[in-house]
Design goal:
alpha+beta; C8orf32 fold; five-stranded mixed beta sheet; 6 helices; 10 strands; globular
Length: about 350
């Protein structure tokens, strides 16, 4: 697979059009837990005693397969495998799996590592999403990236981890009580799903869940949620009715944190030019990348925040079908360590 990343969108820092600084290594943590969904046994009652089908029956069966909806051909996953691998790779950490949404059949196609690597580069360098502002905002960044995966028909979910977590980059240091990033299943090369975490603030390539946890965990224990994409904040704060209802608060949070990052860098003496407020409503925005000779954009549909919409399964191209919804209340649940709940103590779990 030949993949090239192109530079098309202007940087968020301003009109100076400066090259983005190289990010220093940072630390990050993750974890989560899924329950496998029941899968019907296709081999039940399959004794070879039935007569061979006629040619007419074979043609009818083939026609029925062609007419199946796209969702019926989606790959399936067993989240127990994700849990087992994460636990085995973290022998010195107590991992508790709390909220686990029902997985099984994925909500989109398997991606490839090469495709996601190209998308990560565009996310980081061209999308104008402020990945450099690590004090807070992981929930909004994850939601924006999942919206991009939805638009490309790629499967998308999320992993939340709670614990004593820390990160640092060339601009600032951060300590969190939770962190979240997209969970995407890729093709392992043989058509089987393999779990990956997408977090451009920490890696230029898809990460194994255990690798993500090791990068930022500072404590003896973590609590993990493996959840559907509509989960915006940690599950203890409730679950939204839809994925799309959180796009508007995600966009607003990213616009606010883009300004904070700009001000932080300006105060540190960087010459950035005039601040330009990032927007994502235009079709084809967010940066460009090429997969197998085909040019694609991060947000081919733009990020539509009005009217409010609800994700309701797979469309013809593997993306979600969207229905209008009432405007939700806007909340903020900061991931900053200082904003942790009063009963939160990963050293006592």
């Amino acid at each position: 697979m030949n993949i090239t990343t192109l530079n098309r969108c202007s940087p968020v820092i301003g009109r100076a059009n400066l090259s983005p600084a190289q990010a220093a290594p940072v630390t990050d943590i993750i974890g989560d837990s899924f329950q496998p969904s029941a899968v019907a046994n296709p081999n039940s009652n399959s004794e070879a005693t039935a007569p061979a089908p006629s040619a007419e029956q074979a043609v009818a069966a083939a026609t029925k397969l062609v007419e199946l909806s796209p969702s019926q051909g989606q790959p399936r996953v067993d989240i127990k495998d994700v849990q087992s691998e994460l636990t085995n790779e973290l022998p010195e950490v107590k991992v508790q799996y709390l909220h686990t949404d029902e997985f099984g059949k994925l909500n989109g196609r398997l991606a490839t590592n090469q495709e996601l690597t190209a998308m990560i580069e565009s996310f980081k360098d061209e999308s104008q999403i402020p990945f450099g502002y690590i004090t807070d905002g992981c929930y909004a960044r994850a939601h924006m990236m999942d919206e991009s995966f939805r638009q490309h028909g790629i499967n998308f979910a999320k992993m939340f981890v709670r614990g004593d977590l820390a990160a640092a980059n060339e601009h600032m240091e951060a300590r969190w009580w939770y962190h979240v990033a997209p969970l995407v299943f890729v093709d392992d090369g043989q058509g089987n799903p393999e779990a990956k975490i997408i977090d451009p603030g920490f890696s230029k390539t898809p990460m194994d869940p255990s690798e993500w946890v090791k990068a930022m965990n500072q404590g003896p224990s973590i609590k993990v949620d493996l959840v559907d994409p509509e989960q915006y904040y940690p599950r203890r704060m409730g679950k939204p009715d839809s994925f799309s209802e959180s796009l508007d608060p995600a966009v607003k949070r990213m616009q606010s944190y883009a300004r904070r990052l700009y001000d932080h860098r300006s105060a540190a003496g960087e010459q950035l030019g005039e601040f330009v407020k990032p927007t994502w409503q235009d079709k084809g925005c967010g940066g460009d990348f090429i997969v197998d000779g085909q040019r694609k954009t991060v947000f081919p549909e733009g990020v539509n925040t009005d009217p409010y919409r609800v994700y309701s399964g797979l469309g013809a191209n593997g993306g979600g079908v969207l229905i209008e919804l009432e405007e939700p209340m806007d909340l903020e649940v900061s991931a900053s360590w200082d904003s942790r709940p009063s009963d939160f103590d990963p050293y006592a779990w």
